[in-house]
Write a structure and sequence with these properties.
Helix content: 25-40%
Bound molecules: zinc ion
Largest sheet: 8 strands, mixed
Strand content: 25-35%
Shape: globular
CATH architecture of the largest domain: 3-Layer(aba) Sandwich
Number of strands: 17
Radius of gyration: 21 Å
CATH topology of the largest domain: Aminopeptidase
CATH class of the largest domain: Alpha Beta
Structural class: alpha+beta
């Protein structure tokens, strides 16, 4: 596992609609892994690997979707003092937005800034004011620049991401954008594993289409058009999911548990997986001794739903990586679960007939 690639993926800014830097990085990393690579009109990167073994029937087409976008903001106003006001692109919990370092990406360069809600510091706030949780609209960004400079450099529509370095812990990786750069990483590493292997068992008779999608965080938008253009028979949504195996949450609400392996999603609010496909994935994981866990996410979705409902429909499942503290700058994934996701996809694709 080349963790440095995951680091670079996570530290590259790309919000819904502005995934181009992530796409360029991925395009440079997948050189030689696919037979055809193209960018669709919305910006998704569609990468096709032709069958490497013959089958008697017409090859099945498999689409694996991994979204490239991370939640972020668009600048909606630059005020007379040079402060920036933003509009969210993706779901933020404002309780996690206090005192954040951010990166404002503009055509004049990237600028480091700090984000805080308007209002008084603790020392002079009333008890009532201290209790209030502000709305996203109340947060502003301070670039530490003279007002005129900020006004000259930053335009409405420039984009903003959280600005925190990737962190490695002995058993975990932590970043602000594991959702969903980890899936981009898993897809690349799984195809690399298939491509590097000399074993006949790694040859695949299916056409393998990995799509690095755009605008998932605002409603699976890129996956919808990409899935319609690919026309897959079978689809896999590759994403993060909740691991709420942490204090303050009851065991019954865990979704997944860190270290118990790759998640195989049965149902979330966007999709009910094809149960035979779920069984195939679980049986294969057991046979190959790949740790895995079946899971259900009561609220939230992933790109697999778009594949399932594209064209005449497709058999679809979701393969997920349990993530603690999701949609914060401290998203955390267990390395064992990450490895299991790579191993499962690399083992599964060659079994598709
Ligand atoms: Zn996601």
């Amino acid at each position: 596992m080349e963790i440095d690639l995951l680091r670079r993926l996570c530290e590259t800014p790309g919000i819904p609609g502005r995934e181009e830097r992530v796409r360029d990085l991925i395009a440079s990393e997948i050189d030689g892994l696919f037979d055809e690579v193209r960018t669709d009109p919305m910006g998704s990167l569609i990468c096709t690997r032709s069958p490497t073994s013959k089958s008697r029937r017409a090859p099945a087409r498999v689409m694996i979707a991994a979204h490239m976008d991370e939640i972020g903001f668009y600048v909606r106003h630059v005020d007379e003092h040079g402060f920036l006001w933003v509009n969210p692109a993706g779901g933020f919990d404002t309780r996690n937005l206090f005192s954040r370092r951010v990166l404002v990406c503009t055509s004049s360069g990237d600028f480091e800034g700090v984000m805080n809600p308007g209002g008084k510091p603790l020392h002079i706030a009333t008890a009532e004011e201290r209790k209030k949780v502000p709305e996203v609209e109340e947060f502003f960004i301070d670039l530490g620049l003279p007002a005129r400079t900020a006004q000259r450099k930053v335009r409405v529509g420039d984009f903003v991401v959280m600005h925190e370095p990737f962190m490695e812990q002995p058993q975990k990786v932590v970043s602000k954008a594991l959702d969903n750069r980890v899936a981009c990483f898993i897809a690349i590493e799984a195809v690399r594993k298939i491509a590097r292997s000399r074993a006949t068992a790694s040859r695949h008779s299916c056409e393998l289409v990995v799509v690095f999608t755009v605008q998932e965080e605002v409603g699976l938008r890129g996956a919808i058009t990409a899935a319609n253009s690919v026309g897959a028979d079978i689809g896999i949504g590759l994403d993060t999911t909740l691991a709420v195996d942490t204090p303050g949450v009851s065991e019954t609400q865990r979704v997944t548990k860190h270290g118990d392996g790759v998640g195989i999603m049965i149902q979330d609010s966007s999709m009910i997986a094809d149960h035979a496909l779920v069984d195939d994935l679980c049986t294969l994981a057991t046979k190959k001794k790949i740790p895995h866990q079946r899971c259900i996410l009561p609220r939230g979705g992933q790109d697999g739903a778009a594949i399932q409902r594209s064209g005449p429909g497709a058999r679809t499942a979701a393969v997920v990586c349990g993530t603690r503290y999701i949609h914060t700058v401290t998203e955390s994934i267990d390395r064992k679960d990450l490895q299991a996701a790579i191993d499962l996809l690399a083992a599964w694709a060659p079994t598709v007939k």
